[in-house]
Amino acid sequence: MNSDKVKATHLRRNAFVYIRQSTRHQVLQNLESQQRQYELTQVAATLGYTAEQVIIIDDDLGVSGERP
Predict the structure, then answer these.
(1) Is 3 left (phi over 0), alpha (psi -120 to 50) or beta?
(2) pTM (predicted TM-score)
């Protein structure tokens, strides 16, 4: 996958992949969705980002939808 929209100025920044599943049930049951979200790191690599530049944010998996 090559994109004319991703320029050298973009590749000097980090790429962030935010993994989002609101509830514990989603985390346990929607494994394919979760896997596809993590695979977005490969999309970033294909676009030219290094592994060190791809930041995964997944520390609130199953938390945000459980809050009162």
Answers:
(1) beta
(2) 0.73
- Alpha carbon distance 68, 62 (integer Å): 13
Provide mean pLDDT across the span 33-59: 92
Q: What is the DSSP letter of 62?
A: T
C-alpha to C-alpha distance for 66 and 45, rounded to whole angstroms? 33
Active-site residue set: 22
Q: How far apart are CA 56 and CA 1, in angstroms?
A: 20
Q: Helix axis angle, 31-38 relative to 40-47, nearest 10°?
A: 20
Between CA 31 and CA 36 the distance in angstroms is 9
